């Protein structure tokens, strides 16, 4: 059973690495700090991948967590990355600082850092997340 759980966790980590990451946007930390900080309304923004998996964002203050969840053998496996964000107009800029997947810790700088708000939808990495109320 541990072998299957390890394989499933590796698959989730791989999906996270390939769906949400790209080269760094080149902004310095100072530039990101100088941007106006606005707070996104609290809520959960969800994209349903299929019957066995979904992705979602959680926002609290100026922090966030981006989760990828897959059901495998009756168990939900939740891989997340998180950090802080800035909101300028309809554009979000993410700064990734933490993850619960050990293999992703060295890859946080490669995660996609831009998202766009459109009403109750959030566009990130080519996926449309819908605000759940």
Short descriptors:
8 strands, single chain, 133 residues, eight-stranded antiparallel barrel, 18% helix, disordered N terminus, 2 helices, alpha+beta
Major sheet strand order: 1-2-3-4-5-6-7-8
Low-confidence stretches: 1-11
- Average pLDDT, rounded to a whole number, is 81
**Content-based structural category:** alpha+beta
Principal-axes geometry comes out as: globular
SS elements, strand count: 8
Largest sheet: 8 strands, antiparallel, barrel
Distance linking N and C termini: 37 Å
Molecular structure report:
The chain is an alpha+beta fold and 133 residues long. The protein contains two helices and eight strands. The protein has helices spanning 2-19, 29-34, and strands at residues 43-50, 53-60, 63-72, 75-88, 91-99, 114-118, 121-124, 127-132. The chain has an eight-stranded antiparallel beta barrel with strand order 1-2-3-4-5-6-7-8. Mean pLDDT is 81; it is low at 1-11.
Quick overview of this protein structure:
By secondary structure, the chain is an alpha+beta fold. It has helices at 2-19, 29-34; strands spanning 43-50, 53-60, 63-72, 75-88, 91-99, 114-118, 121-124, 127-132.
Tell me the layout of helices and strands.
Elements: H1 2-19, H2 29-34, E1 43-50, E2 53-60, E3 63-72, E4 75-88, E5 91-99, E6 114-118, E7 121-124, E8 127-132
Antiparallel strand pairs: 1-2, 1-8, 2-3, 3-4, 4-5, 5-6, 6-7, 7-8
């Amino acid at each position: 059973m541990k072998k299957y759980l390890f394989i499933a966790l590796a698959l989730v980590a791989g999906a996270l690495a390939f769906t949400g990451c790209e080269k760094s946007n080149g902004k310095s930390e100072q530039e990101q700090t100088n941007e106006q900080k606005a707070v996104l309304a609290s809520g959960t923004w969800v994209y349903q991948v299929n019957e066995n998996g979904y992705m979602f964002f959680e926002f609290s203050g100026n922090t966030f967590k981006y989760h990828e969840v897959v059901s495998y053998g009756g168990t939900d496996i939740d891989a997340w990355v998180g950090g802080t964000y800035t909101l300028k107009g309809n554009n979000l800029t993410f700064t990734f600082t933490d993850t619960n997947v050990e293999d992703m810790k060295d890859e946080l700088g490669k995660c996609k850092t831009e998202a766009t708000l459109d009403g109750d939808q959030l566009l990130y990495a080519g996926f449309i997340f819908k605000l759940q109320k």
